[in-house]
Amino acid sequence: MSVVSIDSRDSTPIYAQIERGLRAAIASGRLRSGDQLPTVRQLAVDLRVNANTVARVYAELERDGVLETRRGVGSFVSATPLRARPPAEHQKRLSAFVMRLLADAAAAGFTFDEIVQELKTHRM
Question: Which CATH class is domain 14-80?
Fold first, then answer.
């Protein structure tokens, strides 16, 4: 069984399906930091896709810090589940969180400036 799958009925490009699948496998814990991925050629054969497509995904995930490729050894997961999420998903979740925070603050009678000042005192 392959670490990811593609759906030929999905209009999403194949490389995007593979990337999404790998990120989801890491985010869900099916793949963990340090796990070795199939070679580009092996995953391409398993998925019946062009090896260049898989290589493109691996390269993109490596640039994003999700994978690490060791020459002559293979590609390994290097990200935590949280780090493996797509950047757009992170921004979407952050935006939703801020909107909830602002709505709750407004309902409680706090001003935006009060919220910002209080957040600055509790910086992580």
Answer: mainly alpha
* Residues paired with 69 in a beta bridge: 75
Q: What is the pLDDT of residues 10-40, one digit of tens each?
A: 999 999 999 999 998 998 889 999 999 999 9
DSSP codes of every residue in 85-97:
S-HHHHHHHHHHH
| Sign of torsion over alpha carbons 56, 58, 61, 62 | negative
**Residues facing residue 68 across a β-bridge:** 76
Instruction: Read off the pLDDT of residues 82-109 as tens digits, 9 standing for 90 and up.
Output: 777 776 776 787 888 889 888 999 999 9
Domain positions in the chain are 14-80, 87-121
Interior CA angle at 85 toward 29 and 23, to 5°? 55
